[in-house]
Amino acid sequence: MTYSARARAFAELHQPGTPLVLYNIWDAGSAAALSKAGAQALATGSWSVAAAQGYGDGEDIPLELLLQIATRITATSDLPLTVDFEGGFAQQPEALTQNAQKLVETGSVGINFEDQIIGGSGLYGVEEQSRRIAAMRAANGDYFINARTDLFLKEPEAGKHADLVEEALTRAAAYAAAGASGFFIPGLTDVDLIARITAASPLPVNVMMRGGLTLSAVAEAGVARASYGPGPYAKAMKQLGEAFAALT
């Protein structure tokens, strides 16, 4: 199967109401475990990949090491892989395009690309982030760009999330026009608000499974993709420590 065909097949897995379940991995070994368990696709989590290599989140891991990890995953698994690419490891459009091209060369058919300012504060403005997404799209016309907004993660008070829905939809529309393939809203756990976004978003919507969200609830809300972020890594490491402690 060609790269374009694999990318299109991955995109077709995003069906509103029947969410693609992505239980985030961090290396080729965890990829193999999910493949054996029947996963349809693979997705890395930036926090998990970095922690597994002794780095902090927020583009602390060297880009070349991240690319090497992605290459090992695609070399050892036939499942489509999407990589959490944070802010693209660059700010300027030309560098973003170059970095995205490097990721495509690993065989990965998708990325998460977020709008928070890595190493700074707040979010990029809608117009600037749209230019950044267009730069990522310039790297390849087929791969799946999951445009993430950090609006809800940046607001710790869930009671204020309703006030952010309209801005989120403004970003969804702008990101779609710039070439994004999906819209990721981590931090939002109110099912009614999620349903408002899925109903109005021009892009298939991805949620992070936290705060008591269930697959049945997000499916009913029209979600097309459900991912688990750093949870699987944290759970695996906790089990590892507990297993050792039980030996003594």
Task: Write structural notes for this entry.
This protein is α/β, with parallel strands linked by helices and 248 residues long. The chain has 10 helices and 8 strands. The chain has an 8-stranded parallel beta sheet with strand order 1-8-7-6-5-4-3-2. Helix 8 links the parallel strand 6 (182-184) and strand 7. The radius of gyration is 17 Å and the shape is globular. The model has no long low-confidence stretch (mean pLDDT 97).
Summarize it:
The protein is built from ten helices and eight strands. With 248 residues, it is an alpha/beta fold.
Gap between N and C termini: 50 Å
Radius of gyration from the alpha-carbon trace, in angstroms: 17 Å
Strand content: 5-15%
Instruction: Using the alpha-carbon principal axes, give the shape.
Output: globular
Assign a percent range to the helix content.
40-55%
Physical arrangement of strands within the biggest beta sheet: 1-8-7-6-5-4-3-2
Q: Could you describe the largest sheet, including whether it forms a barrel? A: 8 strands, parallel
> Helix count?
10
- Given as residue ranges, the uncertain stretches (5+ residues, pLDDT < 50) are none
Mean pLDDT value:
97
Order of helices and strands: HEHEHHEHEHEHEHEHEH
Label the structural class: alpha/beta
| Number of strand segments | 8
